[in-house]
Amino acid sequence: MDMVLITYCTAPAFLAALYTYFAGESGIVDFWTFEYNIVEGKYKVLVNFIGGLMYYTVYMEFPCFASLSVCVLVYHYELLLRNFHDDLKKRSLSIKILKCNKLLNKYNNIVENLLLLKDTLSKPLLAALLNGFLNLYLVLSYSLQQEVVFIMILELFIFALTGVLLLTSLILCCSGIPEYMIKIKSTLAALIDRHQVSDLTLGREIRLLERMEKKEIIYLSACDMVYFRKEFLLSAFGTFLTYSLLIVNMKKV
């Protein structure tokens, strides 16, 4: 996590320095200074660096930090589910020592918090997805140009990298919650099957476990339009690859 934070914090400065190195004094100085004329070359270089730093901070660092914040928040809920699952497996040898009431209340609290998390992150996840797809769309649209200068290739690479980071991190992170819930569901089902036949006196405990086992799997979504599963990552990049191949063939014609 520390390395990720260091990378996100230093990436804009590194990219701005790289942009300044290749652009030199011929960068878009007038754009950064609102058409104010700067004569000396060293000040033009400085303006290019500061402008590039602000540009990469807004268009790369901020979206990546927003995505990282969502991933950290979701990861804490994944830890709750993982700890619950591990505790359930440790006590699965004897259902009698399971305090089923407390276990059910604990799981209900986790599910309620997950539903609140789903509603809270619905719109931010949609915005993050749109940001990632728009970055990839910009790469595809600029790729249609016949001639792309080197500095533009750098821009396209950054846009593509940002889009890939956003989509990959969000989908992989948010898909962890349903995976842990499926594991809990499977462990509960095995626990019920094991003790339902071996001990007929555990009717109340079995019913409580069945109530937990029947809980629906919660999938984080972007306004209920896109549900975060690992399969979505494959379909998203498969579509991007398909359009990339079409663009390459169009440029050859």
Topology, element by element:
Blueprint lengths: L1 H22 L5 H4 L8 H50 L9 H44 L6 H25 L1 H23 L4 H11 L7 E2 L3 E2 L2 H23 L1
Task: Please tell me about this protein's structure.
α4 (100-143) runs parallel beside α7. The mean pLDDT is 79. This protein is mostly helical and 253 residues long. The chain is elongated and about 85 Å long. A two-stranded antiparallel sheet has the order 1-2. The two termini are 46 Å apart. The chain is built from eight helices and two strands, in the order αααααααββα. β1 (221-222) and β2 (226-227) form a beta hairpin. This is Gustatory receptor. The chain crosses the membrane at residues 53-75, 125-144, 150-177, 232-250. Keywords: Membrane, Transmembrane, Transmembrane helix.
Q: How would you describe this structure in keywords?
A:
elongated; mainly alpha; 8 helices; 253 residues; 2% strand
Between the first and last Cα atoms, what is the distance in angstroms?
A: 46 Å
Give the C-alpha Rg: 26 Å
Q: How much beta, percentage-wise? A: under 5%
- SSE topology string: HHHHHHHEEH
What's the overall geometry? elongated
Strand arrangement across the biggest beta sheet: 1-2
Protein name: Gustatory receptor
Keywords: Membrane, Transmembrane, Transmembrane helix
Organism: Caerostris darwini
Transmembrane segments: 53-75, 125-144, 150-177, 232-250
